Amino acid sequence: MLKIAVTLQDLKDVISTPADEVIVALENAAFSGSRSFSLQEILDFLPSAKESGKEVSVLVNKLFHEGETENFRAQLKELTENGADCLIFADPCVALWGKEDGYLNKLIYDPLTLVTSKEDAAFWAEQKIAYVTLSPLVTSSEIETMASSIPNASIKAHGYSLMSVSRRELVSSYLKEKNLPALQNPEDLSLREENRDYRLPVYEKEHMTLIYNDFVQETFSDLRSFMDHGVKRIEIESLRLSKEEVNDAINAYRRIANGEDAESVKLEYYQRYRRHSLSEGYYGWKTVK
Fold it and tell me: What does the buried/exposed string (b/e) look like for 233-261 if buried means 16 or more CB atoms within 10 Å of the residue's CB?
């Protein structure tokens, strides 16, 4: 059985999403362009999510500074004690907290440095956490090798991928340096490369800047093979995608997982959403020879 998770930009969408699991970002604790929610907002949201039959994972993939660890450790403990099914983390200190505070089995490892080797995947699987998220920026055969070596593989299957994070407010600094006015619609900002006509989504929030890849990763053709090699969970990033196309993507992956022809489902989705730069990314070719 494949579990399908999706990031939420609006908590009300938990009612309409066909996903099994929703992902919400904790305020000041997540490296993500997704909307962040306060601890209290998430705590208030958990009962309604459960009533809707959804699992809830909280994104806390920030690397924590020494002076803030006590506060965030308390927040993560409170979340797990009040119904959060999983915490998606990157900082190893969260695994230590989970072991000491009794929620190690509710952790999903997803580092910004990416899991790209079966040895790395195996180490984290041996810690008895819930899932290990494998990098989508490698070939399909490399993903299959990693997935087959652990019992709890997860992948980011669909959406824009985070490419770069800075702890500086780069957009605001640029506007100030150039004496430019504030942006009217900062949620729709993109960077264009000087030598290539690439449009990279960029977000500035909570004293950081995040830059995403210019294409929408998709995994239609490879999904069944990934499942056969041990992938149990996939994530869909909803940033800059309409609710309709996110729900259609979830339903498309579900249909493929249930045995429908992947190429037919893929063609249907591509025809409907060709305005996006849909791509299989690096699945078909090595980044290093």
Answer: bbbbbbbbbeeebbbbbbebbbbbbeeee
Which tokens in the block code for residue 173?
A: 């600094």
Q: Please state, in angstroms and rounded to a whole number, the distance separating the CA atoms of residues 14 and 41.
A: 14
At which residue do the structure tokens 């709890």 appear? 152
Q: What is the band of 60 on the pLDDT scale with cuts at 50, 70, 90?
A: very high
Question: Residue 191's pLDDT is what?
Answer: 85
Tokens of 187: 């949620």
Domain ranges of the chain: 3-160+216-279, 165-209
- Quote the CA–CA distance of 193 and 138 in Å, as a whole number: 23
Non-local CB neighbours of 241 within 8 Å, separated by 6+ positions: 159, 216, 249, 276
CA distance 126 to 150: 9
Domain 3-160+216-279 of CATH type 3.20.20.70: yes
Range in 56-65, 107-116, 198-207, 208-217 the model is least confident about: 198-207
Give pTM, 2 decimals. Answer: 0.93
In angstroms, rounded to a whole number, what is the distance separating the alpha carbons of residues 243 and 247? 6
How much is the pLDDT for 287? 58
Write out the two tokens for 263.
């190429």
Crossing angle of helices 39-51 and 69-81, rounded to 10°: 20
**pLDDT tens for residues 149-169?**
999 999 999 999 998 999 898
What are 257's two structure tokens? Answer: 């997982």
Cβ-contact 142, 222 below 8 angstroms: no
Select from 150, 111, 174, 143 the least CA-distant residue to 283.
143
Q: Report the C-alpha dihedral over residues 91, 93, 95, 96, rounded to 10 degrees.
A: 170
